[in-house]
Amino acid sequence: MINLAEELKQVRFVAIAGHVRPDGDATGSCLGLYHYLKKNYPETDVRVYLENTPQAYSKVPGIDEVFHEVGENEAPDVFFCLDCADEKRLGGFAELKKRAKRVICIDHHVSNGGFADVNYIVPDASSTSELVFRLLDEEKMPVETAENLYMGLVHDTGVFRHSCTSPETMEIAATLMRKGIDAAGIINRTFYDKTYHQNQILGRALLESILLMDKKVIFSAIRQKEMDFYGVGPSDLDGIVQVLMSTADTEVAIFLYEVSPQTFKVSLRSREFVDVSTIAAYFGGGGHIRAAGCTMQGSIYDVVNNITLHIEKQLRQERDSD
């Protein structure tokens, strides 16, 4: 466990960053820690660095204080790397890690091998936001921290539906709610509410989805030309794979979207038997047992065919073990 008071003794500049294409947990954990340090270490310069976040997070406390680029001479005394399984996931903010005197990694990805000076990695945790909560003094926690950490819990647990949701996760959520946050509003604004165009592209993905492998796998893909037609970007596709996963009797959902010709971002979700983190890791990605992703090249057929070979192998092993 990390002792924040010890780590931040006589520290003048603290930087906090999350992974590229920040989701609810990366954003929530970073801003949650940011508000806590701002309140309790007022003489320390604390800054958060994130890529542009989805419009759904526009009302999250502190989002307008985020830095999107690293200054030429910015060298933190302590750099907190949150929700990143490896240094590559920091993107352009990896420069902060190189310049920092001390690097602290807080993460819950099973693929994280520990690349910082201090590593607090708990793969069984629901989210990095849960791990950040464990480090904080509840009595000294501002409501802005509670709001952000609650958002992180909500997003990485799928509103407390995923298997990573433990009794401790629910207890933490209850503690955060007692801080006076608008729990229902956070869930609706950042998780459920979608723009008209987001709903249109979701409809397109569902309409063109295909069941494979005796209906155990559902798959859909969105091409760049379709994103252009509907006027959406990658962040507008968040949540599509989870809707696919809600299809009854399916074990795995695969969602692809094109980032350049013959290159696709792949999102994987599983229900009970398939470890999608091992599949994503095989193709250079990572994630969790039930939620993972990677980037793959080739045609849509090539990508799906290669992934389903690994899914079938795991399902066969499961059947043989019965």
Supply the key terms.
322 residues; inorganic pyrophosphatase (n-terminal core); six-stranded mixed sheet; alpha/beta; Diaminopimelate Epimerase, Chain A, domain 1; five-stranded parallel sheet; single chain
Describe the structure.
The strands form two sheets. Strands 6-7-8-9-11-10 form a six-stranded mixed β-sheet, with helices on both faces. Helix 5 (143-157) runs antiparallel to helix 6 (167-177). It has helices spanning 4-7, 24-40, 94-99, 128-135, 143-157, 167-177, 183-192, 196-207, 224-230, 240-245, 276-282, 300-321, and strands at 13-17, 45-49, 78-82, 102-107, 118-121, 210-212, 217-222, 252-260, 263-270, 286-287, 291-297. It folds into two domains: 4-192, Alpha-Beta Complex (inorganic pyrophosphatase (n-terminal core)), CATH 3.90.1640.10; 197-321, Roll (Diaminopimelate Epimerase, Chain A, domain 1), CATH 3.10.310.30. The longest helix is centred in the last third of the chain and has 22 residues, at 300-321. The protein has twelve helices and eleven strands. It starts with a helix and ends with a helix. It has 322 residues and is an alpha/beta fold.
Helices, strands, pairings?
Elements: H1 4-7, E1 13-17, H2 24-40, E2 45-49, E3 78-82, H3 94-99, E4 102-107, E5 118-121, H4 128-135, H5 143-157, H6 167-177, H7 183-192, H8 196-207, E6 210-212, E7 217-222, H9 224-230, H10 240-245, E8 252-260, E9 263-270, H11 276-282, E10 286-287, E11 291-297, H12 300-321
Parallel strand pairs: 1-2, 1-3, 3-4, 4-5, 7-8
Antiparallel strand pairs: 6-7, 8-9, 9-11, 10-11
